[in-house]
Each structure stands twice: as structure tokens, then as C-alpha cells.
Design a protein that fits this description.
Layout lengths: L2 H22 L4 H18 L14 E4 L5 H11 L38 H15 L6 E6 L6 H12 L5 E7 L2 E2 L2 E2 H4 L5 H7 L3 E6 L3 H11 L7 E6 L22 H19 L2
Parallel strand pairs: 1-2, 2-3, 3-7, 6-7
Antiparallel strand pairs: 4-5
Helix pairs in contact: 1-2, 1-3, 1-9, 2-3, 2-8, 4-5
């Protein structure tokens, strides 16, 4: 798919994400917006998946390890055709198939239930190992947060993936620099990220998480790597696309009020109109 079409889809995903969170009066907009372009690229340009054959054993897998950012993933799954867009506004409502965190038993298109940080990447490693043991060609992708990697389980999973030479595993780090209580540097300070991942036996690629050309280059390189897992450190902006949410830690887990929702949608509508003029 052409870059412009991906940009249009991503802008629509942002609008739907903000609408879902506003309607539910709860959610995590900051990290959902920072990951939107990554979700969009994965499902529309990268992964071998088909909503008409969603349980195909040869499909690629995706695990959202930072499960709280699932509103944007739900919007992408609906856009891809896994379920009707009409369902999106039931997000976080009683009886919905769209829970506040991914639930594989309820939502079509999901490969893993997640929410407890650090566990999703471990499940993805298991899926990658399963593919190797069964001589399958599918690839496994997982998105982790740069705050999530405070969890020791993340590094244990990477040690195992490196030891087992899981070159069918691609870990994407949503490197927006903020987590629940502040900047990642203030809380634990994980930098330099690239050197840490390399020391755990991973092939590291840096990318702009909001530029589809950069993402394409990164994912193409990842597919050439043999004998070790790949980590793509995607530099992103928390709250990307909504001016008052960008780089603002207070939007980690807060829903916009009516006035804020109106402003956000106006900004995204203008962005969409600009894309249509290209």
C-alpha cells in the first residue's frame, strides 16, 4: 500500500481511537496514538494475515504486550475487516467484545490476551519457538512499551529468544519516552536502549515510528536477519496527532472531556483534509 494511503488510514484510526476513549470515559490515549502508525503498517503492509481466514496456522502473529493501548489496535482490526466498525463505540462497555485490555476469547483477530506488562513478549517468544519446532515460515511480531521494559520478564524472554536463535521474532519498542509517572529516564533510565538489546543477543534497528518509509526499511531489514531475534526501536511521540496530548504524560491514562474531544477531532479532521489534498 502506498505511503499516502497508510497515512490516511492512520489518521482515521486516531479519530476512532479518541472517539472510543471519549465515549467510554476511560482508556489510554497517549500510548495508543504513539503506536497507531506501527499498528497500521503491520496490518496493512507487513503481516501475512487475512480476516477471512483468521485462524490460518501459517499466518503471522501479533502480540500487543503493552495491552492498555488496545483502542488503536481495535480500530485497525475493524478497518482490516475482522469485525464491524459499529462495534467500536462499545469499547469498555458491559458485555462488549472490546475489553479495556486484549481478550483473545472475545475479540476476533487477536493472538493473545495481554495487560500484565512483560507477559506479552514472553508469549510471543513462545509462538516464535513453536513456529521453529513445526518448521513453519510465519513471523511473530510484538509491541512493547519503553516503560514496560522495566519488567525483568522482558529481558528473560529476550535471553531465551536469543539462545534459541528465534530469527522469526520481531520485537518493536514504542519509544515515546514517557510512562505512567513521568519520563523513562526519570523512573529507571533504560538508555542506551540499542546497546542493552544488543547485549542480549538481538539485532537492533532504529526507526521513526511515525514515518512509513522508515518503518518499511526497518521491517524489510528485519526479515533478512538470520540466527537472532530483531528489535526495532521505533522513536515515537506520545499522544501523536493531538497537539495538547503530544509529549504530555498526563494523557497516559485519561479520557478527554467534551471540549477536549472537540478540539482533538477538529485537529485530526484538518490533518485528514490536508492528506486528501496531496
Amino acid at each position: 500500500m502506498e505511503k499516502l494511503e497508510l497515512e490516511k488510514i492512520a489518521n482515521n484510526i486516531r479519530k476512532e481511537t479518541i472517539s472510543m476513549i471519549h465515549n467510554a470515559k476511560s482508556g489510554h490515549p497517549g500510548g495508543a496514538l504513539s503506536a497507531t502508525d506501527i499498528f497500521t503498517y503491520l496490518y496493512f503492509n507487513e503481516m501475512n494475515v487475512d480476516p477471512k481466514d483468521e485462524k490460518n496456522p501459517d499466518r503471522d502473529r501479533f502480540v500487543l504486550s503493552k495491552g492498555h493501548t488496545v483502542p488503536a489496535l481495535y480500530a485497525v482490526l475493524a478497518e482490516k475487516g475482522y469485525f464491524s466498525k459499529d462495534i467500536l463505540m462499545t469499547y469498555r462497555k458491559m458485555g462488549t467484545i472490546l475489553q479495556g485490555h486484549p481478550d483473545i476469547k472475545k475479540t476476533p483477530g487477536l493472538d493473545m490476551s495481554t495487560g500484565s506488562l512483560g507477559q506479552g513478549i514472553s508469549a510471543a517468544v513462545g509462538m516464535a519457538l513453536g513456529g521453529k519446532l513445526k518448521n513453519k515460515d510465519y513471523r511473530v511480531y510484538t509491541l512493547v512499551g519503553d516503560g514496560e521494559i522495566d519488567e525483568g520478564q522482558v529481558w528473560e524472554a529476550l535471553m531465551f529468544a536469543s539462545h534459541r536463535k528465534l530469527d522469526n521474532l520481531c520485537v518493536i519498542v514504542d519509544n515515546n519516552g514517557l510512562q505512567l509517572d513521568g519520563t523513562i529516564d526519570e523512573i529507571i533510565g533504560p538508555n542506551p536502549l540499542d546497546k542493552k538489546f544488543e547485549s542480549f543477543g538481538c539485532h537492533v534497528i532504529k526507526a521513526d515510528g511515525h514515518d512509513f518509509d522508515s518503518l518499511e526499511k526497518a521491517f524489510n531489514e528485519a526479515k533478512t536477519v538470520k540466527g537472532q531475534p530483531t528489535v526495532i526501536i521505533a522513536k515515537t511521540v506520545k499522544g501523536k496527532g493531538v497537539s495538547f496530548m503530544e509529549n504530555n504524560v498526563s494523557w497516559h491514562g485519561a479520557a478527554p472531556n467534551d471540549e477536549q474531544y472537540k478540539q482533538a477531532m477538529e485537529e485530526l479532521e484538518k490533518a485528514g483534509e490536508a492528506l486528501c489534498q496531496k
